[in-house]
Amino acid sequence: MTIKAPTLNVAGLGADPLAQRISEKQTKWKYKIAVLSGKGGVGKSTVAVNLAAALAKKGYFVGVLDADIHGPNVAKMLGVDRAEVLAEKREDGGFEMIPPMNDFMGQTTPIKVMSMGFLVPEDQPIIWRGSLVTKAIKQLLGDVKWGELDFMIIDFPPGTGDEILTVTQSLQLDAAIIVTTPQEVALLDTGKAVNMMKKMEVPYIAVVENMSYLICPHCGNEIDLFGRGGGRKLAEKEGVDFLGEIPIDLKAREASDAGIPIVLYGDTVAAKAFVGIVDKLVKKLGEMKGESSESE
Ligand SMILES: Nc1ncnc2c1ncn2[C@@H]1O[C@H](COP(=O)(O)OP(=O)(O)OP(=O)(O)O)[C@@H](O)[C@H]1O
């Protein structure tokens, strides 16, 4: 039986049963990957949804949690912003939300999406203190019927705040993908995000440089609008992996407005860059799991 999802009960939540549910659920998610950035507007959500779409196009089962409580936009980027969230009653009397899904007309496995954006009206700001944000994120992890997933991708708000701490403390993350643009000012903040992930002992940390260059639509030359190569340098300096450069794609806005990730929108250089990044990521994570199973 399904019913309309209740609003989040952030006020009277018992922490322990919820933490227990999160622990149980995460055993069914093979890889848990955080996507974050030190600075806003660098394309973190764009990277998160395109990683998800590229993985789902390969046949993996993918869930995306939009942990940006204050500015959720992943649902729109994945074309499910108009979906209604239903809920099922649990045996303990609580409710479990059913995540909306999109398979982009059969191009991907159904990508499951959960976001604060589903639960509050689009034009309403969320004015909550940190403790409420923490509870809301825990519910989006533990009170959602995620099921078995190959990849759980978590899109964080910019910075190094409460949401990130909550998730890294509640989940055993396998990887953190840190998105930056090439400018100095973005790189400074990116360094902080890398160091936060090191402190949280996330096993695999990698940098992705977005908006690395623009391909001139007239002459086809590459134009380094914001400089180039800073992401790679930062990764080298911090001793973490560099997964690749994504160019500015003039179709990105069109794709985003249509609710379709770039990798499913056309055969562009940016789409190919995302596929290359996903291939490297899958290989690396596979090697890591292989290594740990050998050592067991
Ligand atoms: N490679 C790209 N080419 C062209 N446009 C891009 C690219 N990456 C991101 N954008 C655009 O830049 C804008 C910001 O991207 P996005 O929302 O992904 O950034 P963000 O870092 O998640 O932002 P926020 O700080 O709000 O969380 C969006 O309009 C997006 O379409």
TrEMBL record:
One of its GO terms (biological process) is iron-sulfur cluster assembly. InterPro entries: Mrp-like_CS, Mrp/NBP35_ATP-bd, NUBPL-like, P-loop_NTPase, YlxH/NBP35. ATP binds at residues 38-45. It holds the Pfam family ParA. One of its GO terms (molecular function) is metal ion binding. CDD domains: Mrp_NBP35. Keywords: ATP-binding, Hydrolase, Iron, Iron-sulfur, Metal-binding, Nucleotide-binding. Homodimer. Binds and transfers iron-sulfur (Fe-S) clusters to target apoproteins. Can hydrolyze ATP. Belongs to the Mrp/NBP35 ATP-binding proteins family. This is Iron-sulfur cluster carrier protein. It comes from Thermococcus celer Vu 13 = JCM 8558.
